[in-house]
Design brief:
Radius of gyration: 16 Å
Number of strands: 6
CATH class: Alpha Beta
Number of helices: 3
Strand content: 35-45%
Largest sheet: 6 strands, antiparallel
Number of domains: 1
Distance between the termini: 14 Å
Low-confidence stretches: none
Shape: elongated
Helix content: 10-25%
Structural class: alpha+beta
Mean pLDDT: 96
Order of helices and strands: EHHEEEEEH
CATH topology: Thiol Ester Dehydrase, Chain A
């Protein structure tokens, strides 16, 4: 099995809370950064999405906080798409410290929105496959 796509992130001091650990809302920013980085690496830009009349949407996100992160910690945020039938897909992400410790697990359910009809497209995998220059990064 190949390693999932990932991006490096350094925890910045202004992202921490009064206890000195990464603020809970910033985990969502890190996950979003990894997802957009994967889209870009696969050859899909925001302008290409808009030009094709579709856009990815988040429908549900769950975060499991496992270990604290402190300012200066170096992490990798992974991103792996899981395709099933229907209009939605899952995204599994982990935030992994440089020593290999998993700090958080993020699971999301997403879809691809038809920007004109304001409805989810029937086959989100096909939408990504058509737009991507490297659909393999999505497991397609």
């Amino acid at each position: 099995m190949t390693e999932p796509f990932s991006v490096p992130v350094t925890v910045r001091g202004y992202e921490t809370d009064v206890q000195g650990h990464l603020n809970q809302s910033v985990y969502l920013n890190y996950a979003e950064h990894a997802r957009w980085s994967l889209l870009q690496a696969a050859g899909i830009s925001q302008s290409a999405l808009i030009g094709s009349g579709v856009g990815p949407v988040a429908l549900e996100t769950t975060i499991r906080y496992l270990r604290e992160l402190l300012a200066g910690d170096e992490v990798r945020v992974t991103c792996a798409f899981e395709w099933g039938g229907g209009k939605t897909f899952r995204i599994e992400q982990t935030v992994v410290k440089s020593d290999g410790t998993v700090a958080a697990e993020i699971t999301a359910v997403g879809g691809v929105l038809d920007l004109e009809k304001r409805r989810l497209v029937a086959d989100p995998a096909e939408a990504f496959r058509k737009l991507a220059t490297d659909p393999g990064l999505f497991g397609l």
